[in-house]
Design goal:
Elements: E1 9-13, E2 18-22, E3 71-74, H1 99-103, E4 111-117, H2 131-150, E5 158-165, E6 177-183, H3 188-204, H4 208-219, E7 223-226, E8 230-233, E9 244-248, H5 260-281, E10 287-292, H6 300-303, E11 309-313, H7 329-332, E12 336-337, H8 341-349, H9 356-361
Helix pairs in contact: 2-5
Length: 363
C-alpha cells in the first residue's frame, strides 16, 4: 500500500504552477553536513553601536529620533531609487531582428525602499513582543500601503513588505525591523501568483486561496493556528521544512481592507506562530516573512482576484543548527522536501503558545 509518510511523491503548487518532490523516507538519513551556530538572543535593550536604535547616528549621517513605538524611514542603502535617468534602448525601434533583441531584455526600474523598526528595544523579536505592540506594526504596514497608494505622482505599483530574521537569513542588523520595497513594477513572484489566481477564477468562478482556506478548515490536517479571522497552515505544497502560510478566512484583497478585529487577530496570529517557531528547537528561529496582496493601483476587477496572505520561509531542518539547503536537484530540477507538510504541521501544532524562555523563567 502506498504510504505518503514513507513513499516519494510530487505535490502541485497552484500558486506557482509548479511541483514539489516529497521524499519522507530521507528524513531518516544521518546528517554529517554543515551545521549553523545556535541562535540565542542575548542582545542588550539598547546598543550604542546599532544604526537602528533610538537617538543613534545611522551609517549615512542622519540621527534617529527618540522613537517609542514603530519607526519608519527611507532606507539609506536603497535597492531602487526614484532619482535616476530613464532607461532607453537606442535599437528598440529600428525594425531589425537581432539575437540581442530576442534574448537580452532590460528594463529600467524606479522605486523607494523603507526600513521599519518594530520597536525601540534592541533585543525584542516578534515572539517576545506583546499583541498590542505587534498590532502597532500591522498599523504601520497598513498606513504605508495607504500612503503609497495615495501618492499619485509617483510611479509606484507594488509594495513588498517583508522581514528577514536572523543571520542565517542574511539579516545584517539584529535590531527588530522589517523592510518595504516599493517598485514601479509588480515583482515576478507576486505577478505569477496573481496570474494563477486569475486563471483559477476564470475556470472555477471562485477564489483559489478562498477555496484553499475552506479545504484546510475541512481537512484540519495542516492547520497550525486558528482564530476568528485567520488560519496558519503548512501548505500542501510547502518547500521549506516548516514553511507556513497565513490566510484570512474572509476574502481580503489587501491590508487596507482590515477592520480593527482583523488587525488584532493578525497580531495574535503572528505572535503565536513566531513563539511556536522559537519553541520548536528552543532557539531564536530564523525566517524570511513577506506579505503578498493586491498591487497599489489596479482595476476593481483585478484587485478582487487578489487574496492577502503571508509567507513564512524558515530554513531550519532538524535542529537549531541544521539548515535546509536548496542545492543540487532543487536548483537544477524542482524543489524537494523530506518531512511531509502534515508531519511538520503536527509538530508545530503541538508546541506550546508560551515562549520557552518564559516557561523556563517560571519553571
Amino acid at each position: 500500500m502506498f504510504d505518503s509518510t514513507d513513499h516519494s511523491h510530487r505535490r502541485f503548487n497552484p500558486l506557482t504552477n509548479g511541483w514539489v518532490l516529497v521524499s519522507p523516507h530521507r528524513a531518516k538519513r544521518p546528517w554529517l553536513g554543515q551545521e549553523e551556530t545556535e541562535a540565542k538572543n542575548q542582545a542588550p535593550v539598547y546598543d550604542e553601536a546599532c544604526f537602528l536604535c533610538p537617538r543613534n547616528k545611522r551609517a549615512t549621517g542622519p540621527v534617529n529620533p527618540d522613537y517609542k513605538e514603530t519607526f519608519i524611514f527611507p532606507n539609506d542603502f536603497s535597492a531602487v531609487k526614484l532619482d535616476q535617468p530613464e532607461y532607453t534602448d537606442e535599437n528598440a525601434d529600428d525594425g531589425e531582428d537581432t539575437l540581442e533583441k530576442r534574448l537580452l531584455h532590460t528594463q529600467g526600474v524606479k522605486g523607494a525602499c523603507f526600513v521599519i523598526c518594530f520597536a525601540p528595544e534592541h533585543n525584542l523579536t516578534l515572539p517576545s513582543m506583546s499583541i498590542p505592540q505587534i498590532s502597532r506594526i500591522v498599523d504601520t504596514w497598513r498606513k504605508l500601503y495607504v500612503d503609497l497608494q495615495s501618492e499619485k505622482d509617483k510611479p509606484y505599483k507594488y509594495v513588498q513588505i517583508f522581514e528577514n530574521k536572523g543571520s542565517a537569513m542574511g539579516c545584517s542588523n539584529p535590531h527588530p525591523h522589517g523592510q518595504a520595497w516599493c517598485l514601479e513594477t509588480v515583482p515576478t513572484e507576486v505577478s505569477n501568483e496573481i496570474s494563477s489566481m486569475e486563471r483559477y477564477q476564470a475556470k472555477h468562478n471562485s477564489s483559489l486561496l478562498g477555496d484553499y482556506v475552506q479545504l484546510e478548515l475541512k481537512k484540519k490536517m495542516r492547520i497550525v493556528i486558528e482564530n476568528n479571522s485567520f488560519i496558519v497552515v503548512v501548505p500542501y505544497w510547502a518547500v521549506w521544512p516548516f514553511e507556513t502560510l497565513v490566510l484570512p478566512k474572509e476574502h481580503l484583497t489587501s491590508i487596507k481592507k482590515f477592520n480593527e478585529k482583523q488587525k488584532n487577530d493578525l497580531a495574535d496570529t503572528i505572535k503565536r506562530l513566531t513563539v511556536k517557531y522559537d519553541n520548536l528547537f528552543n532557539t531564536s528561529f530564523p525566517y524570511s516573512m513577506g506579505i503578498h496582496q493586491a498591487p497599489l493601483h489596479c482595476t476593481e476587477e483585478y484587485e478582487n482576484i487578489c487574496y492577502f496572505h503571508m509567507h513564512f520561509y524558515p530554513p531550519l531542518l532538524r535542529s537549531a543548527t541544521v539548515k535546509k539547503f536548496l542545492v543540487g536537484f532543487e536548483l537544477l530540477s524542482e524543489p524537494q522536501r523530506d518531512l511531509t507538510p502534515e508531519q511538520a504541521a503536527q509538530r508545530l501544532r503541538e508546541l506550546s503558545n508560551i515562549h520557552y524562555l518564559e516557561a523556563e523563567k517560571y519553571a
